[in-house]
## 1
Amino acid sequence: DAKTTQPPSMDCAEGRAANLPCNHSTISGNEYVYWYRQIHSQGPQYIIHGLKNNETNEMASLIITEDRKSSTLILPHATLRDTAVYYCIVRVGLYNQGGKLIFGQGTELSVKP
Amino acid sequence: AAGVIQSPRHLIKEKRETATLKCYPIPRHDTVYWYQQGPGQDPQFLISFYEKMQSDKGSIPDRFSAQQFSDYHSELNMSSLELGDSALYFCASSEVRFLGETKNIQYFGAGTRLSVL
């Protein structure tokens, strides 16, 4: 699975959009980009994933560059409850078996009032 | 919606004792994963099971073993506990589909906090 690089920490004002970048320059054509977050000592929580098209769900939007070497997770209106460590994970999404998640450093997002 | 259930939530053991952690996946999920998160560290993959067969193995010590039962629940057995085994242990489950769309989304339980004294 491709390696990812994320900034170690970011701040965001409450109510503003939080844009979390991730570099994955060695990504392969069949690898997906997944985002998870972990609020202090809780189980990691799935946010969103994508292959090459931009994706949006009720939690966030995922913007993947055309060359797929980087992506940005967007939380449109951050709240204090979005304070967490955000992990960008690139992996092959095999349809016939599960696959482990390799958690890297992640970005610690602090949402401030 | 039903979530992944882990028990117990907290466990305190002495060195050299054994511990058994249990995980009940989301209904219809066929794959279970175990992760270990030490203090101040990121979660590390231990082992996974797909349809009751071991599907992948990470940095799991030989003192640890796990299995998935016919009802898809899983147990992580840890023997000869060491101080360094003190950690959060997360179980996750996913449903792998043969419908063309690859999701492979893992849903995590709340974890078991193991303290070895």
## 2
Amino acid sequence: QVQLVQSGAEVKKPGASVKVSCKASGYTFITFGISWVRQVPGQGLEWMGYINTYNGDTKYSQNLQGRLTMTTDTSSSTAYMELRSLRSDDTAVYYCARDPTWGYFEVWGRGTLITVSS
Amino acid sequence: DLQMTQSPSTLSASVGDRVTITCRASQSVSSWLAWYQQKPGKAPKLLIYKASTLESGVPSRFSGSGSGTEFTLTISSLQPDDFATYYCQHFNSYPYTFGQGTKVEIK
């Protein structure tokens, strides 16, 4: 079945970087895009950006532009999200989601909790 | 950025009730709207896309309607498994944005 398996929870210090992985299985990786969505504990959902897994094109939220990079490794069907210069308000659960390029999210990973704390 | 506003923020209902959640966009999103259900500690689950298309495997008691700036999610007969938080999301243009969520609680 279609699955997105994310890397495990991490604790980071302010100013550090984090790279979260999202390994896809059960479908042809390059036929669907991947979006990343985050959720501060107890709060709503925030779209972070999208990567076209076929050609690597990206779209990022302006709020995160400059700190965010999305990449893929098509040989392992894995998408990556790197966030730099972490702040305490980046503490959130980070989700990857399969995006059929329309912009809605059909399948979600289980989420990765990133805690930013000194 | 385009703003999505849901109402109500919290809804108390009983099993068997008909429930309606509204989502309003600050400008037209045509029919580029999705609805998700999220339970505590879990990832969101897609229910409806393109305003009214039911995702495969989602029970038919869920339905979506609307276009332009006003949309509704209706649960025709609330079941115990439906107590959760519901979010709308537009995908008309970047950046995509979500509503703030509607929590459906047991009355």
